[in-house]
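note to self: dont lose this again. the chain is below, predicted strucutre after it. 347 aa total, dont forget to put it in the shared folder this time
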Amino acid sequence: MPYAEPNNLSSFLIRHQSLFQNKNILICGQLQSVSLSPLLSEANANFLVSDYSVFNLLRNIAPNLGNRLQYGFFSDKQNQMFEAVLLFMPKAKQEAGLWLASVLPLLKPGSDVFVIGENRGGVNAAPKLLQAYSNKVQKLDSARHCSLFYAQLASPPATPELQSLYSHYSLQLTPSLPELKISALPGVFSAGELDEGTQLLLDSLPELDGNILDLGCGAGVIGATLCQRSTTAKIMMTDVNALALDSAAKTLEANDLTAEVIASDMFSDVTSKFDFIISNPPFHAGLNTNYEATERMLRQAPAYLKKHGQLFLVANRFLRYEPILAEVFQSVSVINENSRFKIIQAY
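---
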């Protein structure tokens, strides 16, 4: 299967491909399938992918990777297995710090650490992050609006306690119920505070029961709130982001709540039908605005709803989701809105 057209980052990688050849290297971070194409033929390369959609695509276009392709953000490989790491810089600097903390313990002393990314994506924060692990940090190149940094690892750090990587905060979303404790890893949606759109959505929902899907669960605020509000509801929470899934599971645990948490690219791994689908869907993919996944979700949603099932979602006011929903639902209405967001109900 042919790869997608190269972007700036993949073209920049081709220019430096020799740096990563013939090395037992771990490639991780903000991976995009289009950027990875120059590296997929490297026999010694391992890939640690936290985006389930990228993971599935790589499984299809590069089946030869086998167990060298892993979904998650902590590798199951042995310590001191790798000679090098190539980190694709995530948008959130704190998430980049998490990646370094989780993968550098897998390196041998004196190993090579490379950080690559688009300049507008915050890659120039890499030297400060790398200084904690190396006395030798340098910029190798900057071109095509991308930069590549290098550090020689002085000595591998100890594997961190996962608990130490979470941020925590509490919310009072339902006055008659206890505060909800939120636990989240860096870079996860709603990691530091509740966003205004989700707050408006939760304030607008009627009483819900039955089978409920929290699609794109992030840190688990919506799913955990629905678990609190109905002790009889059966709730499934999905996300593409491995860090989000881990955070959602931790949020449920912190509040003694139970729900099914699975990796899914929108409905890719969903096999059930639901009485309600609730979502604060993303419209960004990495650094770019991308509506494709959400528009696909809107059109597919009726197939995952039971008879008389309903979809509730939050959207920025400028997003025109109603015409798309009207193609596949009988009734579409805005049930609440403020200056920035609107809550749409469809059935």
